[in-house]
Design brief:
This protein is an alpha+beta fold and 252 residues long. It is built from five helices and eight strands. The chain has one domain.
């Protein structure tokens, strides 16, 4: 999505503490991936020059993308890299997983860092996610590179949802965001925590026991996205080292 995707709860999923993940997105992407705006200044009302979002060395981008998941998964995954025409396949995969480094527009459509050119959030989609969720983010990337404003992207997303052109996530959709070298947002100023993200059709996050005291699960949804995302922090980064500062609450 923190993402992946970055996300935040909205009124549609309950009156709970606001949460963001960088989408991944962490974003990622943060992830981060859907939700309302986070506190803080908007990181630019429009897109920065494209060069600021691109990585100079494709090999470095491939290596960073693979860091989203343990080598036992990412070594055989397909890897996408961003160029001026969108995400392109740099490495063909063998196991159905797809890894890439998400940029800030994978974030929630209302996220204040939607255009932040510094975001680099490795994320790895399992086969179900690569088929049913990733195409939506790739389409958004194409809109961005074609010069669409954020308002236009929101309108196009709403229209695609109304026309049933965006599918619900397949059963079993999961993404890995375990990269120690991620930059999820200026608020996090680096990686958040290693975590897994589960994409489900729209639902009440309370059904997962999310966003309540002592629960390890965080959840978020948005009326402009076709899914609800659940975030589960885990103990180790993809290189096997422990997260030295595991989250003690739901703030991201």
């Amino acid at each position: 999505m923190n993402c992946v995707l970055k996300v935040q709860n909205t009124g549609s999923v309950g009156n709970v503490a606001r949460t963001t993940v960088a989408a991944v997105t962490i974003s990622l992407i943060a992830l981060a991936a859907v939700g309302a705006a986070r506190p803080g200044a908007d990181k630019g009302p429009t897109m920065a020059p494209l060069e600021q979002y691109l990585m100079a060395n494709q090999a470095d981008e491939v290596a960073q993308a693979r860091s989203a998941a343990p080598p036992s998964i990412s070594d055989d995954a397909a890897v996408l890299v961003l160029d001026r025409n969108g995400y392109e396949t740099a490495v063909k995969g063998k196991n159905g997983f797809v890894c890439l480094v998400q940029r800030a527009w994978f974030s929630g459509l209302d996220d204040t860092e939607f255009w932040n050119p510094k975001e680099r959030a490795p994320i790895c989609f399992n086969p179900q996610g690569a088929r049913s969720v990733l195409p939506t983010f790739l389409k958004r990337t194409n809109w961005v590179l074609a010069g669409a404003t954020r308002a236009e992207i929101v309108d196009r997303t709403k229209a695609a949802l109304a026309a049933h052109e965006i599918p619900a996530p397949e059963v079993g959709t999961i993404t890995y965001m375990m990269a120690k070298n991620a930059y999820h947002s200026d608020r996090v100023a680096g990686p958040w925590h290693p975590h897994l993200m589960f994409f489900l059709p729209r639902m009440d996050v309370a059904e997962w026991g999310a966003n309540v005291p002592s629960s390890p699960v965080m959840g978020a949804g948005s009326p402009t996205e076709p899914w609800t995302i659940f975030f589960v922090p885990i103990a180790n980064w993809s290189d096997g080292t422990a997260d030295a500062h595991p989250p003690m609450n739901h703030k991201m």
